[in-house]
Amino acid sequence: MERDASLLTEHRPGADPILRLYRWEPAAVTIGYNQEFSSFDQTRIDEAGYDLVRRPTGGRAILHADELTYAVIGTSPGPVFGASLHETYMKINQALVAFLSDLGLVAEISSGESREAAQGLVCFRSAGRHEISVGGKKIIGSAQRRTGGVFLQHGSILAGRRHLDLPTFFRHDAKRGHGDLAAVTTDLGQLLGDALTGTDLDELAVRLAGAFGRTLELEIQTG
Question: What CATH class does 2-216 carry?
């Protein structure tokens, strides 16, 4: 996350866009730019061996375990990602939907959520505008920060079930109203019918990078 924030600070309008794909070790709870650490139980998080950090982007809390994280740093307004927040989200979503399609999955892009849902702590509890679902259940949550003609967009692609543990790390008075995450989320392991290993996720990351390259009509260079 610190590296992503640094890349955003260093990025200049018109520079080549950057795509980062990574997994977390140890797992971590990240909170959105405007959320408060006081809503989370640091002791329980420490006992689980996890970290608690703030993302430089907006959105709500995520437990990064059994998932792929992506980060895109680029120019907007610009020819690749469009002129507005909406256009940037939709361009990146084209790549994400193409990735899921390559896996034989039919994805939908959410048009929004209720005001009550938007006030919750959990990113995957409801589907905000621009977020991606399969079979009516959310699988990818994203958030974006824009500054000085450049942007950083983070997203979490669920690959297993450990994200369901997130509400156990809230302080007691923050747990109300979050319900059963299993009822509103899905993940790649569940959809593909198998528990995904680290090697599987590394292979999926290569396919995801390819989907970005095709969608943005850019050559992917590793480094």
Answer: alpha beta
Strand extents, DSSP E, 23-100: 28-31, 51-54, 62-64, 67-75
- Whole-angstrom distance, CA of residue 43 vs CA of residue 108: 37
What does the buried/exposed string (b/e) look like for 126-151 if buried means 16 or more CB atoms within 10 Å of the residue's CB?
bbbebbbbbeebbbbbbbbbeeeebb
Q: pTM for this structure?
A: 0.88
Tokens at residue 74, please?
């680029």
Q: Which two tokens stand for residue 219?
A: 């050559």
Per-residue pLDDT 10s for the chain (223 aa) are: 899 999 999 999 999 999 999 999 999 999 988 888 999 999 999 999 999 999 999 888 999 999 999 999 999 999 999 999 999 999 999 999 999 999 999 999 987 544 444 444 554 544 566 889 999 999 999 999 999 999 999 999 999 999 999 999 998 655 544 457 889 999 999 999 989 999 999 999 999 999 999 999 988 877 6
123 noted as active-site residue? yes
Active-site choice (31, 63, 123, 143): 123
State how far the alpha carbon of 202 is from the alpha carbons of 128, 183, 196, 205, in Å: 28, 27, 10, 5
Which candidate, 70, 99, 63, places its Cα nearest to that of 204?
Answer: 99
> Which amino acid is residue 73, in one-letter code?
I
